[in-house]
Specification:
Arc Repressor Mutant, subunit A; 71% helix; single chain; elongated; mainly alpha; 11 helices; Tetracycline Repressor, domain 2
């Protein structure tokens, strides 16, 4: 069972304070961005003094990166929950991701106006990385079964598909590109061609 379904242990007072700060940071950074937000605002939103806030986060940059990871964690949990019973998990994951970004202002802001470092943080997050590993494992299984060519490299193909998927998300969110359904379905066709065909009946039951 995925880790985000596990029952959470009771948090200490310090951990609860840190969570309160992160919640305030996700909301404030999401609405105002990095430049227009100060640590004083974040600490005030959380009901703390700036001195107390610096006990948990070294500077505003540390706040920013932690807040991004927190919002991405939340977004991934929502997306994974939405595809638990899906017969097309990768396809529905992409749809749920694009839709979920409408509700996660900070994650969306990072994709729209984030620095290359911020975008790399998103790409390295489990939101994309876990899916890439899943695809690589699925491709390796297909190769064993003879569905995928023996000369193919599952890891390279999975990385290529991750790159295309990330580019699609950026295009939709950052450039406001329309026709999301058609574009996702087109990317899916590309994936299927690279993977040696659409999912088999056995794969859909896994």
């Amino acid at each position: 069972m995925p880790e985000f379904y596990e029952r959470r242990r009771a948090l200490s007072k310090g951990e609860r304070t840190r969570e309160r700060l992160l919640k305030a940071a996700v909301q404030r950074f999401g609405s105002q961005g990095f430049r227009q937000t100060s640590v004083s605002q974040l600490s005030r939103d959380a009901g703390l003094t700036p001195a107390a806030a610096y006990t948990y986060f070294e500077d505003k940059e540390t706040f920013w990166l932690a807040a991004i990871n927190t919002d991405l964690d939340s977004l991934r949990a929502e997306v994974v929950q939405s595809i638990v019973r899906s017969e097309r998990p990768i396809v529905d994951y992409m749809f749920a991701l694009v839709e979920g970004l409408q509700r996660h202002a900070l994650a969306r802001r990072v994709l729209v106006e984030g620095s290359p470092q911020d975008l790399q943080l998103v790409l390295n997050h489990e939101l994309f990385a876990a899916t890439t590993r899943l695809v690589a494992a699925g491709l390796a299984a297909r190769q064993t079964e003879g569905t995928l060519s023996a000369s193919a490299n599952p890891e390279q193909l999975a990385l290529a598909l991750e790159t295309v998927s990330f580019a699609l998300v950026l295009a939709v969110v950052r450039a406001g590109m329309t026709g999301v359904t058609e574009r996702v379905e087109s990317v899916v066709k590309l994936m299927e061609a690279a993977m040696g065909g659409p999912p088999t009946a056995n794969e859909r039951r896994r």
